[in-house]
Amino acid sequence: MPPSNAHPRRQFLHHTLRMAALTAALPAAARASVAEPGARTLSFVHTHTQERIEIAYADAEARYLPQALATLNRFLRDHYTGEVGVMDPRLFDRLHRLRLELGSDRPFEVISAYRCPATNARLRESRGGGVARQSLHLQGCAIDVRLQGAALADLRDAALAQRAGGVGYYADSRFVHIDTGRVRSW
Predict the structure, then answer these.
(1) Do 109 and 129 contact (CB within 8 A), yes or no?
(2) pLDDT digits over 99-109, tens only?
(3) Which of 10, 16, 95, 139 has the highest count of CB atoms within 10 angstroms of its CB?
(4) How far apart are CA 138 and CA 68, in angstroms?
C-alpha cells in the first residue's frame, strides 16, 4: 500500500517539474532577443514564481518581436492556474518608458499580470470587491508592479505623468497598477 502522502508528493513533483520546464525555456528565449543596440528591453522578477527574465520585446525601429511577445505572455501568465493569456504590447511600451524616465535598469517586480476569468472571480470573492468584475488583467492590458530601486510614489507619479492609461496606487500592498485602458487613477 502506498504511503498516505504519495498523492500530494506526486502533485508537488509534477508542479515542480512543470515550473522547471517553463523556467528553463525562458532564459534561452531571453538571451536570443537581447542583442540589438537600441532594442526596447525589459526585465522582470515574478514575486510568485521567482522566475526572472530580461528580454528585448521590440527592435530599434519599435517593431514588436513576436517570439519575445510569446515569451512574455508565458512569463506573465496567471500564476494561480498557469493559463497563458495575450498581453497588450502597449503595456510593455509604458513600462519601458517608465524605466527610462526613472533612470533605472533594475527589474520590475511582478505581482500580477494576466488573470483568467476563474482566478478573477475567486479574487473578487475573497477580497471583498477590491477586484474589478471586468478587470483589464483579464484582457492582458494590466500589470501590478514595483520597480526595484525606485520609490513606489515615484513610480506612480511617472506613470500618471504618461497620461496613457490607468494607474492605481496600492501603498499598503506595495505595488502600482498600470494598464492601457482609459486615462484614470485611484
Answers:
(1) no
(2) 999 999 999 99
(3) 95
(4) 21
Residue 128's pLDDT band (boundaries 50, 70, 90)? low
- Residue 106 to residues 11, 13, 42, 48: CA-CA distances in angstroms? 35, 32, 9, 18
What grid cell was written down for 81?
492556474
Amino acid sitting at position 19: M
Going by C-alpha positions, the residue among 85, 113, 98 that lies closest to residue 177 is 113
**Is the dihedral angle over the CA atoms 113, 145, 71, 18 positive or is it negative?**
negative
CB under 8 Å to 148, separation ≥6 — which residues? 45, 104, 106, 107, 108, 109
The radius of gyration of the chain's CA atoms, rounded to the nearest angstrom, is 17
Label the pairing between strands 175-179 and 142-147. antiparallel
Across the chain, mean pLDDT equals 85
